[in-house]
Amino acid sequence: xxxxxxxxxxxxxxxxxxxxxxxxxxxxxxxxxxxxxxxxxxxxxxxxxxxxxxxxxxxxx
Length: 61
Ligand code: SF4
Prior knowledge:
The protein is of the alpha+beta class and 61 residues long.
């Protein structure tokens, strides 16, 4: 699994970080960045973040 955030789409709401801080974090640019691209141990919460992201910026490949 590879976790990707589309920074152009991200509005920096912080929901993904709140749900899964092991994988997502807000950067100095105010956008989410992926701390752990694999995030395999956190699949369920990554999936939850993907579903809750208001702009659909999170993708899992
Ligand atoms: S939930 Fe979506 S819009 Fe909000 S910070 Fe995360 S990637 Fe950005």
